Task: inverse folding
């Protein structure tokens, strides 16, 4: 089963992480790496698990 997470940063950027059998620390690392690659690194404010694929419309990056 795939898990869907939305990671929100303090610069209001959001990253969608879709991964199987992940824990929150792995999700945070992946999301931080995505923002680092986009030269937008920032501090994580929240990690939210979601089951609604429609939530992907509210994010800035997808991992």
Result:
């Amino acid at each position: 089963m795939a898990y869907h997470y939305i990671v929100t940063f303090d610069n209001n950027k959001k990253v969608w992480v879709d991964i199987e059998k992940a824990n929150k620390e792995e999700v945070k690392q992946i999301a931080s790496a995505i923002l680092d690659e986009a030269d937008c690194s920032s501090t994580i404010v929240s990690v939210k698990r979601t089951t609604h694929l429609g939530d992907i419309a509210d994010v800035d990056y997808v991992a």
Summary: The beta strands are 2-9, 14-20, 44-50, 61-62. The two ends are 16 Å apart (CA to CA). Residues 2-62 form one domain. The longest helix spans residues 24-37.
